[in-house]
Write a structure and sequence with these properties.
Blueprint (H helix, E strand, L loop, with lengths): L6 H13 L2 E6 L5 H17 L3 E6 L8 H4 L5 E2 L4 H10 L2 E5 L11 H5 L5 E6 L11 E4 L6 H13 L7 H14 L9 H12 L4 H9 L4 H13 L1 E4 L3 E6 L1 H6 L22 E7 L3 E8 L5 H8 L3 E2 L3 E7 L10 H15 L1
Parallel strand pairs: 1-2, 1-4, 2-3, 4-5, 5-6, 8-9
Antiparallel strand pairs: 7-8, 9-10, 10-12, 11-12
Helix pairs in contact: 2-6, 2-7, 6-7, 7-9
The structure holds guanosine-5'-monophosphate and manganese (II) ion (MN).
Length: about 350
């Protein structure tokens, strides 16, 4: 049950790689394990197996929790080096976009991507509604766990077996698939387990990955979860649950980037909860993470009420103040009104 990569598309990618010299790989803003895992895997493959110059460009902050994956990997962070990031995008002859469905998901890099003069532009992604007209070759399906999984099937179509891919690529792909499935809790397809089996057989140390991902948190993270779930969880009529981490809360519990990963899934463990929202207050907006159970569209909630989108059961977005709500304190009213309207429409 492998995700099907047609021979025609694999051949087309193969000939693109033969004709290219200088690739830029770009992933989405606030990169997560799947964005970084697929990005690192592709960069390693291009430089080690195909002899290309390849630069991985990320729009902004890397999660501290993924340092085990990113440390020592050359990449350009646009937040620290915007000139370097833009120049990598403007000077490449092959642009590869992964784990996002449109240039606008690259935050501050959107303009450089819009103006990118590369001859070939390849998309490898698993989100809904890919912006196909921005690319010359598209690998896109929502029927895989992750961009990392899809990239595995693409690379396997090119090389024939996992053993022919760089070990660092395999390790990064296993990491990205593991974080996007929340360690096999969601978005698991037959092809996902097949991929995992093949990577294990090829020697990927999954225990090492799981140890890094789930057993190296700070004490503050665990205590913050207890506080957020104990005193900041509200369940609205219709089974829409939310947790808000205000700026004040974040001062009390200084969490590092990436440390609240997984929190939004926990309220879904309650039988009466159908959808869970986690909101983090930033300088001029709330970032929201949304998860839902079957029949409840996290994607619709994100698109209609939070300027975002994503997958059917896992989505996200942003709510700006004063544009969308006059001030941050009004978030609770906004959530109550939004939940009522959302439930009414269903
Ligand atoms: P997370 O809640 O893990 O940050 O994001 C879950 C999914 O929601 C992501 O894979 C992505 O598809 C989508 N997503 C998260 N944040 C945004 C956003 O700001 N805009 C859009 N369009 N999608 C987002
Ligand atoms: Mn992903």
């Amino acid at each position: 049950m492998q995700a099907v990569i047609s021979k025609e598309k694999a051949d087309r990618l193969d000939s693109i790689l033969r004709c290219s010299r200088n690739a830029a790989i770009v992933v989405h803003t606030r990169p997560d394990g799947d964005a970084l895992g697929s990005g690192i895997a592709m960069r390693r493959y291009l430089s080690e197996k195909r002899g290309l110059q390849a630069t991985l460009v990320v729009p902004d902050t890397l999660p501290q929790t993924l340092r085990f994956l990113t440390d020592g990997e050359p990449l350009v962070n646009a937040e620290e080096d915007s000139a370097g990031a833009e120049s990598a995008i403007r000077s490449c002859d092959l642009l590869i976009v992964q784990d996002m469905n449109a240039f606008r998901r690259a935050g501050s890099l959107e303009k450089a991507l819009d103006e990118c003069p590369a001859r070939e532009k390849v998309l490898i992604d698993h989100h809904l509604n890919p912006q196909e007209d921005q690319f010359t070759l598209v690998f896109s399906t929502p029927d895989v766990s992750s961009a990392s999984e899809l990239l595995y099937w693409v690379l396997k179509a090119l090389e024939g077996s996992a053993e022919k891919l760089p070990a660092a690529s395999l390790y990064a792909l296993m990491t990205g698939m593991t974080t996007d499935t929340n360690n096999f809790a969601n978005s698991v397809f037959p092809s996902t387990l097949e991929m995992a089996g093949e990577l294990l057989a090829a020697g990927v140390d999954r225990n090492d990955i799981v140890g890094h991902l789930y057993q190296e948190f700070s004490e503050t993270r665990i205590r913050a979860f207890a506080a957020l779930l104990g005193s900041h969880l509200t369940i609205l009529p219709g089974g829409i649950a939310y947790i808000v981490a205000t700026r004040q809360f974040q001062k009390e519990y200084p969490l590092r980037e990436g440390e609240t990963e997984g929190l939004v899934n926990i309220p879904l463990g309650i039988g009466a909860v159908n959808m869970s929202l986690y909101l983090k207050e930033e300088k001029d907006h709330f970032h929201v993470s949304i998860r839902s159970k079957k029949g409840w569209s996290a994607n619709r909630m994100a698109m209609e009420y939070f300027n975002g989108g994503g997958h059917e059961l896992a989505a996200g977005g942003n709510l700006y103040f004063p544009r969308d709500i006059a001030s941050p304190e009004l978030i609770y009213d906004y959530l109550a009104a939004t939940a009522a309207r959302f439930v009414q429409k269903d």
